[in-house]
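Hypothesis: this fold can be encoded by more than one sequence.
Test: take the structure tokens below, design a sequence, compare later.
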């Protein structure tokens, strides 16, 4: 089943923010919080510090009417900066690769610095893609894999 969710990016305080949202909405995380240290390192990137390895790679928290907040920490040591346009995205989580590719193509048409879809180490397919002028700056199309669903494809469209 397709769904829409919101993906939030933070500079090192994702867990604190999600614990606050959990207390407000009275809900529980969908699965465990994935940590940066849980993922294989990128040999071309600087090594993560022990503090960074404990930061949030990915977490999901349902809030209202089936809507899910997803979130991650951005890492300054990896060149990440938080700004309007990359602090929040709207995910369109789709059922199949063909529909993901169709929307990915249409939403990124006219965008700059386009990247192609590719398999990610966490089992999704996707890549950041700045949107074209018709889409504005903060939309995201994605299909997302969950343990309770079959494997799906993920495409990110980040703000310009």
């Amino acid at each position: 089943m397709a769904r829409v969710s919101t993906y939030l990016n933070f500079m090192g305080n994702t867990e604190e923010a999600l614990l606050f949202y959990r207390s407000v909405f009275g809900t529980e995380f969908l699965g465990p919080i994935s940590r940066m240290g849980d993922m294989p390192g990128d040999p071309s990137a600087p090594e993560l510090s022990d503090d960074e390895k404990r930061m949030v790679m990915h977490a999901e928290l349902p809030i209202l009417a089936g809507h899910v907040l997803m979130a991650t920490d951005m890492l300054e040591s990896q060149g990440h900066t938080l700004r309007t346009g990359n602090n929040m995205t709207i995910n369109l989580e789709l059922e199949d690769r063909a529909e993901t590719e169709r929307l990915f193509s249409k939403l990124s048409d006219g965008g700059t610095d386009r990247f192609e879809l590719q398999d990610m180490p966490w089992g999704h397919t996707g890549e950041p893609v700045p949107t074209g002028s018709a889409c504005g700056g903060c939309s995201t199309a994605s299909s997302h894999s969950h343990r309770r669903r079959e494997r799906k494809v993920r495409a990110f469209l980040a703000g310009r």
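The first strand starts at residue 3 and ends at 10. The beta strands are 3-10, 34-35, 56-62, 68-73, 88-93.
Hypothesis status: open.
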